[in-house]
Amino acid sequence: MKGVFLVLLMLSFSVNAEMPVGDAERGRLKFGPCRTCHYPEQGVGHNNGPSLWNIFNLRVGSQPGFDYYSDALKQADFVWTPELMNVWLADPKRFLPGNMMMSLGIEDAQDRADVIEYLKTFSEPETP
């Protein structure tokens, strides 16, 4: 597992070096194809993929009530951050081999940043 973490860290530096500022409204439009499997709204629940409500700072593979995580996601040991989500969205199969994500990823860095900014709008407010 330590090897996977090092790979994630290296990928994160190479992809995040180019991460632009995202726009939630553009992200809403770019998220459309993701709705085939995921819903970010609170209370909507899971679809073919897990709910993305409050995804940031959540341990990967741990959305309550979603029982279809791949072994790769069940065994991964990290929490979702915007930076790691950026690497994931760039190339999910490379980020974590063996996962069951159906998407090939979002190639464009601006599109990824926009989707991430959109997902941030579906989070619990931070408590001081």
Chain-averaged pLDDT: 88
Q: How far apart are the termini?
A: 33 Å
CATH-defined superfamily:
Cytochrome c-like domain
Q: Can you give the helix content as a percent range?
A: 40-55%
Gyration radius, rounded: 14 Å
> According to CATH, what is the topology?
Cytochrome Bc1 Complex, Chain D, domain 2
Helix and strand element order? HHHHHH
Shape: globular
Alpha-beta classification: mainly alpha
Largest sheet: none
Number of domains: 1
Report on the architecture of this protein.
By secondary structure, this protein is mainly α. It has one domain: Cytochrome Bc1 Complex, Chain D, domain 2, CATH 1.10.760. It has 6 helices and no strands. Helix 1 crosses helix 4, helix 2 packs across helix 6 and helix 4 crosses helix 6. The longest helix has 15 residues. The model has no long low-confidence stretch (mean pLDDT 88).
Give short descriptive properties of this protein.
128 residues, Cytochrome Bc1 Complex, Chain D, domain 2, 6 helices
Summarize it:
The protein has helices at about 1-15, 25-30, 70-75, 80-90, 90-95, 110-120. By secondary structure, the chain is mainly alpha-helical.
Task: Give the secondary structure arrangement, pairings included.
Elements: H1 2-16, H2 24-30, H3 71-75, H4 82-90, H5 92-95, H6 109-120
Helix pairs in contact: 1-4, 2-6, 4-6
Organism: Litorivivens lipolytica
Signal peptide: 1-17
InterPro entries: Cyt_c-like_dom, Cyt_c-like_dom_sf, Cyt_c_1A/1B
